[in-house]
Amino acid sequence: MSERRTLYPPIEPFETGMLDVGDGHSLYWERCGTKGAKPAVFLHGGPGSGCSPKQRQQFDPVRYDVLLFDQRGCGRSTPYASLEANTTWHLVADIERLREMAGHERWLVFGGSWGSTLSLAYAQTHPERVTELVLRGIFLARQNEFDWLYRYGASELYPEEWERFVEHIPEGERGDLIEAYRARLTSDDPAVQLAAAKAWSRWEGMTVTLLPDAEMLADFTDDHHAVPVARIENHYFLNRCWLDEGQLLANAGKLRGIPGTIVQGRHDCCTPPSAAWALKQAWPEVELEIVADGGHLFTEPGITDGLVRASDRYAEGAVVS
What we know:
CATH architecture of the largest domain: 3-Layer(aba) Sandwich
Largest sheet: 8 strands, mixed
Strand order of the largest sheet: 1-2-4-3-5-6-7-8
Number of helices: 12
CATH superfamily of the largest domain: Alpha/Beta hydrolase fold, catalytic domain
């Protein structure tokens, strides 16, 4: 048990498609693993990032039938980077539409970072549809968590990058950086929009790794990736993710009876461990694993180990129907 688990080998979907969810939005979805095995849904982060092939590898392909999808405006979903009819509660409704489409009565819900926020919102709205929860990098969308990233906190750990992030905004507008970036990310000038998106995405990219990762940072600031992530993330954060302050903690009682695991990096500078600890206090039954040498990303060895062990544990006894 001392040897750390790694991701499962790469796998291709056995089924893909687009689902019209109304409001002009169409979602890309894919199913991987073994059809008829244990149902699961993967909720990606951001908000705005889209799903990737590596995320499929957190599940045993023999024992899981896992659905991954690009949330509204993300990845291969259309329209690209759209903010219209794009809120937390639209996404919660979309997850239910996807569950019904797949023909599952209930499923395991797996999400990290913003995906953990969405997982909790979905599970608290539809607890009868959730068999288990596997969460990483807890983000509860409370004011102190927004402040950590965009006022004071992470700025003390990455002062040179914070200065670069802030310098993109004129001094007179720096009192509310989220609002100031909003004006640029929704500009009619594509050049203004792209420059702001790259600056926003670079700042986040610097906070998510335990050690510098040039390849990951290049991906974060790639034009096609940076624009939807920055626009959608900023849109959600400006609106506090359409959650009341402390809502996900206040409603944690709705999770009683749902087995759950949280894998949290001790040195996560994007979503610090205090949020995971607060959730554990509100939901005592959940298993909380704080990874001593872990940061934010699921690809870090200790985080991968915890997530794969959790998904394996919940698959025990699962059979293909």
